[in-house]
Specification:
This protein is an alpha/beta fold. The protein has one domain: Rossmann fold (3-Layer(aba) Sandwich), CATH 3.40.50. Helices cover 41% and strands 12% of the residues. The chain is built from eleven helices and five strands; from the N terminus they run βαβαααββααβααααα. The protein has a five-stranded parallel beta sheet with strand order 2-3-1-4-5, sandwiched between helices. α6 runs parallel beside α11. The longest helix has 18 residues. The protein is globular, with a radius of gyration of 17 Å. It starts with a strand and ends in a 6-residue tail after the last helix.
């Protein structure tokens, strides 16, 4: 049985990760999985997120079983399997050895923009909530395992989606598909149970939106978190894919 090409896109929240998932799912040869470690994350941490009970009931709460599934056969036996991951779901007790068996990509975004978006829907924020510290650790681990992952900056990507997607497909050894640039509006059966709470904009979209200048003003805890994450962001941004 031929092994699928398993692509793991490691992002933080409030990024373009769901639009990226839409792009890959619109390929005829690709299946997607939406945050497969989220149920374990919620069950283990006890955090109160929108649709928490539904996410836990619908997902796999044992991270080991979730990982076993991610290393198994792809949905519908598609040859390409895109896995959308959040790095903050990699809780400290989760072993990381399995990750090197995937083809990994890091998706980063300026922490000031991430935090400004995050605090619109959450009362508090901490550095680990937005995933950048975990992305920096994961980058080093993957380099040590033998393959430096491409780093995609969301701002750069939105200025040149096709060029970035072509570069990623080339790195993965697969053909680029024009279908990755445009997709039909609406929900997907592959969307997580949390989609009604978070995916309204993506469900209305038909492609990647052009980047918009935002004047975000942060203060207090939010500003401190953004600044604490900035060194991780700047380090990874210096390593970003340039097209």
């Amino acid at each position: 049985m031929t092994e699928p090409l398993r692509i793991a896109m490691w992002s933080g929240p409030r990024n373009i990760s769901t639009a990226m998932m839409r792009a890959w799912e619109n390929r005829a040869d690709c299946a997607v999985s939406d945050e497969p470690l989220y149920a374990h994350y919620l069950a283990y941490t006890g955090l109160d997120h929108p649709a928490r009970d539904e996410v836990i009931a619908a997902g796999e709460t044992d991270w080991r079983r979730a990982v076993d599934a991610l290393l198994g056969q792809s949905p519908e036996r598609k040859p390409v399997w895109y896995q959308k991951h959040m790095t903050h779901h990699l809780l400290p007790h989760i072993e990381h050895g399995w990750i090197a068996r995937l083809r990994n990509v890091l998706l980063i975004r300026d922490p000031y923009e991430v935090v400004a978006s995050y605090v619109k829907s959450r009362a508090t924020v901490a550095a680990d909530d937005i995933g950048l510290p975990q992305q920096a650790v994961l980058y080093d681990e993957l380099c040590a395992a033998g393959e430096a992952p491409p780093v995609v900056d969301a701002g750069d990507f939105l200025r040149a989606p096709e060029a970035h997607l072509r570069a990623l497909c080339d790195w993965l050894g697969i053909a680029f598909s024009e279908r990755m640039l445009r997709w039909p509006q609406g929900p997907r059966s592959s969307d997580g149970m949390w989609a009604p709470h978070w995916y309204a904009s993506v469900r209305k979209s038909t492609g990647f939106a052009a980047p918009m200048a935002r004047e975000n003003v942060l203060s207090g805890e939010a500003a401190a978190v953004a600044e604490a994450c900035r060194p991780h962001y700047e380090r990874l941004r210096a390593l970003r894919l340039r097209v």
